[in-house]
Write a structure and sequence with these properties.
single chain, alpha+beta, FAD/NAD(P)-binding domain, protoporphyrinogen ix oxidase, domain 3, 5-stranded parallel beta sheet, about 25% strand, globular
Length: about 450
C-alpha cells in the first residue's frame, strides 16, 4: 500500500506520522514537498548568532479543554523533556501613546465582564436579553459585526481587531465567528447575550490554575519538525511540485516534478496538506464543486522584522504588545523574546525584538525593500515605546506572502461540503481548512490521516 502526503508542513508531517502509526510497516508513505525544506512556517533561523523562529514561535498547551494535539505530538516524538513555557509576564496593547495591560477574562478580546474594560475602551450598553439565542440554528456571522452590535465599536477596534490581527493578520469585520472562535459560536446558539456566551465558552475550556497556555521546544521548533519527520519514517521528496491529481481504478495518480517530463506516482490514498490555491488546482480533476469551495479562501501576507539589539538595551517588562490598526502604525504586534522566554536569557546575548507587519488589505505596507521595511519597523517601535532604540547589531526580514488564511463567513460549512464531496481515500489537511496555529494544523493532519486510513480499510473489505 502506498499513501502520498502532498505538503511537508507540520500538518502534512503529522498526517504522515499518524498514517505510520496506523499502518505500521505495511504502507509506503511518501511526503512530496515543493520547497527545499519540510516544516512550512515552522523554521528556526539565527540572528547575531542566536536561534530565532522565522515563523510561528509557540503552540497551545491545551485546546478544547484537553491537551492540545501539538503538546501531545511533541511528547510522542520524544521532546517532552525539552518543552519550555513563556514567563508569566503580561502583554499590552498600544492605545493613545501608552502600553496598557490586556484585560483578563476575554476571549480574543471579547469580554465576559465589560467592567474589566473600564479605562481601556468605552463599552456600549447594547447586550440585552431579547429572549432568544444570539444566533439562529446554523447561522455564522462576522466577529466584528456581532461584537459591534452588542458592545460597541471601541471593543472591536481597540481589542478584538488587534487580537485577531495578531493571530490571522485579518480584520474582525470580515472573519467568521465559527472558524475563529468555535467555542463562542457554539455558545451563541444557546445564550441570549454575548457576555453570557463568552462566559459559557470560557467555562467549556477551563484552564487549570497556574497551568501554562503556550509552549515551545528548547532549541527551536525545527527540532519538532525534524523529530516528527524521523518518526514518520516516510520517504520525503523535496523540490517536487505535484502538478496533477486524478482517479484510477485502484486509487490515485499524481503527476510530480517538471511539466516537460513529470513522474506519474500511483497511490491508494492521498492527503492534500497544502494551501487553498494549490489544493483547488489539484481537486479540479477530481470534483469541480469541491475545488470551487476550497478555492474561495483568501490569504493575508505578513512580514517579520527581527532586531538583535545590544545586550544592555532596556525594554518594558512585557512579553510584547499589540497595536490596533486605528493607531495608525504599520507594526501590528511586537514580541520581546528575552523577556517572554526565560530559557533564552543570558546576560551577554543580544536582546531580540520581533515586529510583525501586514494586515489584510494592507499589502502595500509590505511592498518595500527589506532595508526600508526595517526602517519602518524601527521608526514605529521608537514611537510606540516613546524611546529611541539603539542601533541593532543585526536585523532580518522574513516574508510570508499569502501566509495566513482569511476565514470568511461560512468557511466551516464550505470545508465540510468540500470534504463530503470527495472520496474517503482523499483527505484535506492544514491551515486552509481547520485553523491556524500549530495545534490546529497537527489536529487537522491527524484527522485527515484517520479519514484516509478508514477509507482504505473500507475499500479493502
Amino acid at each position: 500500500m502506498r499513501i502520498v502526503v502532498v505538503g511537508g508542513g507540520i500538518a502534512g508531517l503529522a498526517a504522515a506520522l499518524r498514517l505510520r502509526e496506523l499502518a505500521g510497516d505495511a504502507a509506503e508513505i511518501i511526503v512530496v514537498e515543493r520547497s527545499d525544506h519540510v516544516g512550512g512556517k515552522l523554521r528556526t533561523g539565527s540572528i547575531a548568532g542566536e536561534a530565532v523562529e522565522t515563523g510561528a514561535e509557540m503552540f497551545l498547551v491545551r485546546e478544547r479543554g484537553a491537551d492540545s494535539a501539538a503538546w501531545t505530538l511533541a511528547r510522542r516524538v520524544g521532546l517532552g523533556a525539552d518543552i519550555v513555557h513563556p514567563a508569566s509576564v503580561p502583554a499590552a496593547i498600544a492605545i493613545g501613546g501608552a502600553l496598557l495591560p490586556i484585560p483578563g477574562g476575554t476571549l480574543l478580546g471579547v469580554p465576559s465582564d465589560p467592567s474589566t474594560l473600564d479605562g481601556l475602551v468605552q463599552v456600549s450598553d447594547l447586550d440585552q436579553d431579547a429572549g432568544r439565542p444570539l444566533l439562529a440554528p446554523g447561522e455564522d456571522v462576522a466577529v466584528g459585526g456581532l461584537v459591534r452590535h452588542r458592545l460597541g465599536d471601541e471593543v472591536v477596534d481597540r481589542l478584538v481587531d488587534p487580537m485577531l490581527g495578531g493571530v490571522y493578520a485579518g480584520r474582525a469585520d470580515l472573519l467568521s465567528l465559527a472558524a475563529t472562535m468555535p467555542g463562542l459560536h457554539t455558545a451563541a446558539h444557546h445564550h441570549p447575550t454575548l457576555t453570557s456566551a463568552v462566559r459559557s465558552a470560557l467555562a467549556e475550556s477551563p484552564r487549570p490554575a497556574g497551568a501554562a497556555v503556550f509552549a515551545t521546544v528548547r532549541g527551536g521548533l525545527s527540532r519538532l519538525v525534524e523529530s516528527v519527520a524521523a518518526a514518520a519514517r516516510a520517504e520525503v521528496r523535496l523540490g517536487d511540485p505535484v502538478r496533477e491529481l486524478s482517479r484510477t481504478p485502484t486509487g490515485w495518480q499524481l503527476a510530480v516534478g517538471s511539466t516537460r517530463d513529470p513522474e506519474h506516482l500511483a497511490a491508494e490514498g492521498v492527503v492534500l496538506a497544502v494551501p487553498s490555491t494549490p489544493a483547488a488546482r489539484l481537486l479540479r480533476g477530481v470534483d469541480a464543486d469541491a475545488a470551487s469551495l476550497v478555492g474561495a479562501l483568501d490569504y493575508a501576507s505578513v512580514a517579520l522584522v527581527t532586531l538583535a539589539l545590544p545586550p544592555e538595551t532596556d525594554l518594558p517588562t512585557l512579553s510584547g504588545f499589540l497595536v490596533p490598526a486605528s493607531e495608525g502604525f504599520a507594526v501590528k504586534a511586537v514580541t520581546f523574546f528575552a523577556t517572554k522566554w526565560p530559557h533564552l536569557r543570558r546576560a551577554e546575548t543580544p536582546v531580540l525584538v520581533r515586529a510583525s507587519l501586514g494586515r489584510y488589505g494592507e499589502e502595500h505596507v509590505l511592498q518595500r525593500t527589506d532595508g526600508d521595511l526595517i526602517g519602518v519597523a524601527r521608526a514605529d517601535l521608537d514611537a510606540l515605546l516613546a524611546a529611541r532604540l539603539p542601533e541593532p547589531i543585526e536585523a532580518t526580514v522574513t516574508r510570508w506572502g499569502g501566509g495566513l488564511p482569511q476565514y470568511g463567513i461560512g468557511h466551516v460549512d464550505r470545508v465540510a461540503r468540500a470534504r463530503a464531496a470527495l472520496p474517503a481515500t482523499l483527505g484535506l489537511a492544514g491551515a486552509a481548512f481547520d485553523g491556524v496555529g500549530i495545534a490546529a494544523c497537527v489536529r487537522s493532519g491527524e484527522g485527515a490521516a484517520d479519514v484516509v486510513w478508514a477509507g482504505l480499510r473500507q475499500s479493502r473489505t
